[in-house]
Specification:
Strand content of chain A: 15-25%
Radius of gyration of chain A: 19 Å
Structural class of chain A: alpha/beta
Largest interface: A-B, 37 and 37 residues
CATH superfamily of chain A: Acetylglutamate kinase-like
Strand order of the largest sheet of chain A: 5-8-2-1-11-13-14-12
Order of helices and strands of chain A: HHEHHEHEEHEEEHEEEHEEHHEHE
Number of domains of chain A: 1
Helix content of chain A: 40-55%
Oligomer: homohexamer
Shape of chain A: globular
Chain lengths: 287, 287, 287, 287, 287, 287
Amino acid sequence: MILSALEKAEVLVEALPYIKDFYGKRVVIKYGGAAMTECELKMKVMQDIVLMKYVGMHPIVVHGGGPDITGMLGRLSIDTKFVNGLRVTDRDTMEVVEMVLGGKVNKEIVSGLNASGGKAVGISGKDGGLIKARPVDPSGKLGFVGEVETVNPQIIETLIENGYIPVIAPIGIDDEQQSYNINADLVAASIAVGMKADKLVLLTDVPGLLQDKDDSSSLISILKVSQVPGYVAGGIIAGGMIPKVKCCVEAVTGGVSRTHIVDGRVPHSILLEIFTNEGVGTMVVNE
Amino acid sequence: MILSALEKAEVLVEALPYIKDFYGKRVVIKYGGAAMTECELKMKVMQDIVLMKYVGMHPIVVHGGGPDITGMLGRLSIDTKFVNGLRVTDRDTMEVVEMVLGGKVNKEIVSGLNASGGKAVGISGKDGGLIKARPVDPSGKLGFVGEVETVNPQIIETLIENGYIPVIAPIGIDDEQQSYNINADLVAASIAVGMKADKLVLLTDVPGLLQDKDDSSSLISILKVSQVPGYVAGGIIAGGMIPKVKCCVEAVTGGVSRTHIVDGRVPHSILLEIFTNEGVGTMVVNE
Amino acid sequence: MILSALEKAEVLVEALPYIKDFYGKRVVIKYGGAAMTECELKMKVMQDIVLMKYVGMHPIVVHGGGPDITGMLGRLSIDTKFVNGLRVTDRDTMEVVEMVLGGKVNKEIVSGLNASGGKAVGISGKDGGLIKARPVDPSGKLGFVGEVETVNPQIIETLIENGYIPVIAPIGIDDEQQSYNINADLVAASIAVGMKADKLVLLTDVPGLLQDKDDSSSLISILKVSQVPGYVAGGIIAGGMIPKVKCCVEAVTGGVSRTHIVDGRVPHSILLEIFTNEGVGTMVVNE
Amino acid sequence: MILSALEKAEVLVEALPYIKDFYGKRVVIKYGGAAMTECELKMKVMQDIVLMKYVGMHPIVVHGGGPDITGMLGRLSIDTKFVNGLRVTDRDTMEVVEMVLGGKVNKEIVSGLNASGGKAVGISGKDGGLIKARPVDPSGKLGFVGEVETVNPQIIETLIENGYIPVIAPIGIDDEQQSYNINADLVAASIAVGMKADKLVLLTDVPGLLQDKDDSSSLISILKVSQVPGYVAGGIIAGGMIPKVKCCVEAVTGGVSRTHIVDGRVPHSILLEIFTNEGVGTMVVNE
Amino acid sequence: MILSALEKAEVLVEALPYIKDFYGKRVVIKYGGAAMTECELKMKVMQDIVLMKYVGMHPIVVHGGGPDITGMLGRLSIDTKFVNGLRVTDRDTMEVVEMVLGGKVNKEIVSGLNASGGKAVGISGKDGGLIKARPVDPSGKLGFVGEVETVNPQIIETLIENGYIPVIAPIGIDDEQQSYNINADLVAASIAVGMKADKLVLLTDVPGLLQDKDDSSSLISILKVSQVPGYVAGGIIAGGMIPKVKCCVEAVTGGVSRTHIVDGRVPHSILLEIFTNEGVGTMVVNE
Amino acid sequence: MILSALEKAEVLVEALPYIKDFYGKRVVIKYGGAAMTECELKMKVMQDIVLMKYVGMHPIVVHGGGPDITGMLGRLSIDTKFVNGLRVTDRDTMEVVEMVLGGKVNKEIVSGLNASGGKAVGISGKDGGLIKARPVDPSGKLGFVGEVETVNPQIIETLIENGYIPVIAPIGIDDEQQSYNINADLVAASIAVGMKADKLVLLTDVPGLLQDKDDSSSLISILKVSQVPGYVAGGIIAGGMIPKVKCCVEAVTGGVSRTHIVDGRVPHSILLEIFTNEGVGTMVVNE
């Protein structure tokens, strides 16, 4: 369908109230899944984020990097052990994780944002002392799988105040300079809380939380924190949605106004979430 | 035609390169004609200007007010004399001009911009010593029809730096505190030069400069300053277009990058001019 | 009497303690009455206000405009109805009020201040969303006679921080973009409270509050808020003094340190009030 | 003569154009002579300087201290030798000079200004590296009588930008930490040039430059630099006026707009010079 | 002993953690005793203080000046009376005190700091209204021996924010412009409290507080406020140490983190105190 | 040898003049060679750089990463072809280069600096559009071996103004988002020129330029640009020294005051170079 110039102008004007509402707001975006691996989707995410910056928001990107890490571990013939379903991260694995996340994935996102007209700067949780980490399992059985101990968002503040889009690899460091591999959703939530962000958007490969997981029309648009225990007990929040929802709950109870589980497979899903009234996933609110 | 959410997102993203190009730029808009009198068009202009502000431009509005002035003069039974086609502005007329422009038209535009989500402030050339004027005809035959002697844009700088959209009534003042009625096109051009604006947009009730005035398909999209004398001699620039083009020439030779004569009768014509590649009038360039 | 240079110097030096005390203070001045209509008095008020600005105070002017409005309504043969002694402001009347206040009276004051060496900027309550209004009488019998709902003083802050003297026409606006005509004393008091002003000065055509209204030597120099009910009951505060005193009480209970009812018919009465110990009216204090 | 309140107000208003003209201007005042020794005059000078600060000027005070130095030298029985009419400053003398100027005279002026409502800070040319000096006579015959080699006005800038009135003792220092006693007029002129001051005022005990030194009515109100050689040759500029005029010439040729030789014996002479049209001495201009 | 370049580098690096800890901290130093009278020691103190400034601390110097005052009083044959062991400061004595402290000692320290590469500015408690004083003995028996009534540290803030090292003569002033001679330790403590300093260092001519005053190896490194009464009762804190300790107690109970009584006879004792772990005196802490 | 506290203090004070000279200066350090691979040396470099930051300099680190890249290429069995002695960088190689430099080496340096007390942020030439690159060999025979086309130092400015130490991986990007591997010496020189740095330090594994390459006592301490052609012709500048010297020449002719080829195998060689007079390599000057 070809739009006339006038129709285009009308669309721009329709966005005005949303632009106004979000002016100067901080939005942390966990970027991953299909939106990161499919070229077309990826380009659209880049455009969405740069547009957010130009219309006055402060997007902050936290990325994962699963498939690339697995690929590189395979090429290097590094075996992966699993304990309780979690990949054990030994020293060799950690080295690869860090190279792939910080040296490859992070910089590809930076290039993509810059090519779309933004000014992005890629850092990891080590830079500027951003993320202090500790092992998830103090016994050491999981190796260097970490969790966020504290966030010092000063470097992010410096970057956003100077017009940059921060892109963050989810790596932390402890006092002995040991690196930790941290789940990107958790890093995004911690940074959103630490930055007093207005919004946290988790891009996923599902439509959101479904009442019936096999019926995509059963989307739960709004999920209250108070409903979570019941939904978990009832099996509606299950599997991979459990940690996602947990992240959102942590964020909203930590002061983030709204958090969203959004389907990254929908083109421009971030923009749709922010600039239109049409639901594109599940919003978790602190009620 | 109903657009899908995706189509809307695509349109927003299409605007990104234009948003980027105009970020932080100053655009002086002469607002008048049908775009000011027809309610629907008026609302669209307000939206366009507020959108410009939110995506990082600095719009500055200069308005005329012809019909309202004529109406009020009629209601007050003040006769209008004409000399060489110019309305003689005596003391009584000037009082009405000032009340209508500064008290009615100016504040209506301010309200409209504020209602559309902007923060507008209406001033006249008297405020902050913005426009020092002198009579067009020193003999006094035209009364208080003035021209711009100097522009002191400090108050406009203060307003735009603090997030406001300045709306300016085309009235000047001389050292004896005498007010003058000045053509709004000329005021817009002078302010554009004084502000080192990047763009001057004159909203008119014609499609632009036409090769054949009866053929709207004969639009001259780009007019070089060097072509003007020939076009005037050839009668292509004639009648009311002569002062319009003269304004544009003054502006571009005074340092404004581009000036545009745009058809205000086209909905969202300002937005189209700025955010699309499609020609919506005549651009005058300094070549 | 001709003063010697030395005597002049002595006077300047005498003012020093007052200049020091008021350095950086905000003073809202309700300007109206004889001080606005008599040419000589008017010029002196302009000088007083500009001087205040130069010696480090922040004067903010709110003006009325009664006689000019009445005159213009007469010229336009618009009849005025009265309900309970208040002029009903219908749509036609409101249009005239706005034109006269915003386009004529406001700009005359601006010109006068600028001619006296100041940098004044005239706005109305519509500009920058300064005054949100609502009808005094919700039944609508009084038409568009309004009262202040909220004050957003951001535009005044911007202007005074940048060296300007704000001059404000007492017009408000509601969410439907309807204009309201508001009593200037009330606007001055609301702005004084909203700006956390140190002083509110109401220029009137009486010497202040008199114990005996026929004896100008019976001036009550200091009126405590606690005394007001008794004085009203006793008929000492009566007639036009009731709303004036009410304004002052609102201001001082709202946080303005001192409010003054000053005789605008006395030349330089503002300056006398601020720079000398000699009483020039009635001061209302929150005791 | 007792002035009425109105007369006082008129005087304040009369000062307005002068206040406006000098707003933000830097005025270096060489303070000495009778204005420093007579209590009444001294108090008036203090008031004048504080008033200048409050109405927006930046006064900078440089003081001498002759009689106090002589007195202390006498009390300490330190003999004074003279070479070519200049007091030889040996090490013992220099110590006394510095104590008296920096510890006594300087702080008395500071106290006086503070008591008059100012915020004064007293420094010498040693503080903040303000004045680098060298001996007037390289042969050493005059001891530590110095002249200004360079001025680094950074400390003065810091003080005036933060609301202080700098009070400067005319002492310099060389690279070997040797102190020098420098003529206060010369220091004032050097600082005025170094600060790009608008005005230099030298307070003296004469009415200004007189055509006939015995006829105080023969005051030369304006002295052009081009006239100086002729007046020196003609003996009109003679004796103590030679170095005074030389200072003024250095200042105006160095970029100070105007310099004044003013009679410090006239009460409020500084204020008269700045705030009135009446001549109170000789102005030297660069013509 | 000649150090190799490498050894020097190692020392610099050893200081790094201390530099980091004290970055941006305010340190008030009471300067006096042998460290002020012996040339070699004096030079080292100057270097220490300038180094502190360059590595990011904000040193603030308060000095005494006993011997110079005594010397000058002797040269002027001014007799000194004592009451209860305190020198009575009559008007003549006060004049000398002020000249010597403000004009001689203060400026010598300034010169020394500047010659060592700093930017020092010398002021007294009169400058900028720094110290308001009152007589220690209201009966007047001690004359103008004063104590600190209030400290207004604004001038010190201005100086340190602009890169200067303030050097302060311990003189205060009352509302009648009367100067007072105040004990320098007390001034240092009051300023440390008023500035919310992190550290107060009192340079003395003793090794610190000794358990046995005749055994320099019996140094009490840390003295808790709670121990003071017992130590006074036990005679361990005795004589001149009583006021010293009292100063320290006032400072730490007033909010200064740490105070130190340091042996100024040890070369570079300030630097040692700050940059090494080795004890160089007694630290008083608020426990 | 154990140094006494006093000796340590003396060393700190000795550094004062150097600290003063370099206050606020920008120093670009090319970090590589033994100083990066040997643990002890590495820790000392980190300390040196952090110390520079704390004493007021702005160190900017550019690093190479040769051995790690070779190691990873080996582990991934990626063959390396050489053309004219330069490693051909194909797409696979480039991916590894970027991962190793940006994800591993860069972050290790960041961690080291942070552990030493600094606030470091690691970026590559892609971040913030820092380095725009083009192929060294347009024919493409060398693959993605690049050279600097332009430097946009804005991100570095942002970082150093906010207290960070930038650590830069020598990777550039062209308009098609293609990454290039660039020689770190060249990147350091380009950034030094682009930042108007005061000093460029190249850490190498040689003592500097030797007159006789087998005699380490034949060090050429100062090399003038004008001497370079002769020395190249004479074989004194040969082999790996040719590109090093070329970098230095580019930097000094581009406006960098001084450049140094320093022996990174000497502990604390950077500190020695900056804080002592002892020669630790070859300085290239623009003469």
